[in-house]
Specification:
228 residues; mainly alpha; 11% strand; two-stranded antiparallel ribbon; globular; 9 helices
């Protein structure tokens, strides 16, 4: 590619949608004027993704052999009306759907990040070189300033999810970007397969429990580590 345009913009609230749309308009303009332009994006792990059967199998094994015993899990689910510690996928799903949307991040964040996935899918279908990789959950400033999310991230390891430091995520995603640009892999048969290839989900896709059904417990367990 002669030029690489990376859309890594972020802003709070509705400004995030505006800046993502502005970046998308710039990408459309560049692709018209410079067809050799490549596009680059980082997909948030807290979104909805179709995932391969191998990830579903790993999640099922984690559910069966998890740290939370069957009796304790049954008790928690009974007390909460089944809202907590739900299975991540129906057994045998092929492919599965990982719904990791986090309400605390708000609809503007979800829409802004979804716009990038739509653009990546459309551009790839029209022959553009695209690097879109699922980035791991990361302790960025925008995340940790939300106390509820910061607590959930602190307790996420209790449920098999690794949260990365910013420097680690930056290095990892830079390597994946270089790989994508140098290999120029053709599109997969289905768009979800392109997103799943090389996804650095940090364990969200292979966790035993549906992310939102464990989020509250993770926050409670992580709260202690945030106290002075």
């Amino acid at each position: 590619a002669g030029l690489v345009l990376g859309n890594y913009c972020y802003a709070d609230g509705s400004d995030h949608v505006r800046v993502s749309m502005a970046a998308d308009a710039l990408a459309t303009h560049l692709l018209t004027r410079r067809p050799d332009t490549a596009l680059s994006f980082l997909a948030t792990p807290t979104d909805v993704f179709v995932v391969p059967a191998e990830e579903v199998d790993a999640a099922e094994e984690a559910y069966t052999r998890g740290r939370v015993g069957r009796a304790a899990r049954t008790s928690v689910r009974a007390v909460t009306g089944g809202r907590l510690l739900q299975r991540n996928y129906p057994p045998g799903a092929d492919p599965g759907v990982c719904d990791a949307l986090v309400p605390q991040q708000g609809p503007n964040y979800a829409l802004a990040k979804r716009l990038q996935r739509w653009r990546a899918t459309d551009a790839r279908a029209h022959g553009t070189v695209v690097s879109l990789n699922v980035a791991p959950a990361t302790r960025t400033r925008s995340v940790v300033k939300n106390k509820a999310l910061a607590a959930a991230y602190a307790g996420a390891h209790r449920f098999g999810v690794e949260v990365f430091e910013p420097a680690t995520s930056n290095s990892l995603m830079a390597v994946l970007l270089v790989h994508d640009l140098r290999t120029g892999q053709p599109p997969a048969d289905e768009p979800w397969q392109d997103e799943a290839r090389g996804a650095a989900h940090g364990g969200l896709w292979t966790a035993a429990y549906h992310p939102r059904s464990a989020l509250g417990l993770a926050a409670v367990l992580g709260l202690g580590s945030l106290l002075p």
